[in-house]
Amino acid sequence: MSESTHEPVAGRPLILIACMLAMFMAAIEVTIVATAMPTIVAELGGFAQFSWVFSIYLLTQAVSVPIYGRLADIWGRKRVFFIGTSLFLLGSVLCGFAPGMQWLILFRAVQGLGAGAIMPLTATIVADVYRPEERASIQGWLSSVWGVSAIVGPLSGAWIVQHLNWAAIFWVNVPIGIVSMLMLARWFSEPGHHQQQRLNLAGSGLMMLSVTALLAALLQAQEPGWWSLCLFVLAALAGWALVRHEKHAPEPLFPHAIWQSRTLLAGNMGNLAIGAAMMGISAFLPTWIQGVNGGTPLQAGSALAMMSIGWPLASTFSGRLMHRTSYRFTAQTGSLLLIIGTGLLLLLNSHSSIFQSGLTAFVIGSGMGMTSTTFLISVQNSAHHSIRGICTASIMFSRLLGSALGTAVMGAVLNYNLLIRLPDRQDPVQQVMSHAERAAMGAQGLAEVTGQIAASLHWVFAVSVIIATASLIVSRALPVKRPGD
What we know:
Largest sheet: none
Structural class: mainly alpha
Helix content: over 70%
Order of helices and strands: HHHHHHHHHHHHHHHHHHH
């Protein structure tokens, strides 16, 4: 019997709600912690290690995503989801008790290891209980979680640090995670897994070594040195060893079907491009608004939030468009929106309004929502149940890796341009961000510095356009068929 003829699973709406709660818990973590970090640093100290609170979370999450996806195919979705969520909640509780910045970084690593299970497993569970022709529409509900978290996260984080202890920003995850697990324990039942496979420990170790070295090198790319070069070499050697191992392994970490299917390859390459292009706006649009336009952090956050609003709206629309046209047409439409949106970044100038920045962010978010949903649904619908977990996880992993690559490449482009254009100024972006230093420059000096920063950022935005164009090229590999065909 084909998937499309399966009877609807009982309690599907409750399973969907449980997955949305889990996704919300993981999605809000980044924004709520970012809001509270100044308060945390004031109490714990260790400002020099500030960035590692976020970096270690991203690193451990990215490394663990493919492993959880493979384990879900071998052990079953529910068991692996419970393991990952429990680890995430343990890390959350420990973060609230951290006595110093080093301990907080360690506990954030634990939290990230758990978060690596939440996103791919929730998407896989939803794909298991909904038929192929229904998944595109349901994805709009899942994407809406990101829009809500982008708004609720900063607001709730600010309220908590003002009225409660900062530890509460981590502990608020606990009841949400427990409710999600209880709902899935009650309503989600899956057939017994009869796969006799075991996790490929050698492949997993090589993958973790390669990805950890690569991400660590990318995180240090702003300050290149011998350490970065050594990490890149280690990542390349471990990656080469992984490829050789996977070719001959009887139970490869990444099933051969992933490399043999144009749809699966396109889905991964497309999300790599989306993740990289996304950083052109996520990391550098706030810099433009605050540094070039002289806006406030609130204005920068408001403009950026428009991306999180456009994403779920376009994701919902893409579900309908897929049913009326095809995977390829929908992905190409989203890619065109992404190209237009990143192109609009090049039209920003020192007199651009917050409305123009917000509109640009909305168009980019719409393009990302449409393309990411289409790539994910096409992969899930073409993957057999026995490998759907690792295929879904590979999509999430590709986007995380793309974000890290995009941040490193665009950061290097910005720094190089600033070095050429403003060789006598050390950290000019930080100078224009400071109200005191900005005022001390005088009108002419400020205009000169912001003009050079704007020109440098335009090169960053040009790289975003090139990466967005790559998603259009990749989308041509998707099949000309609709969900359920």
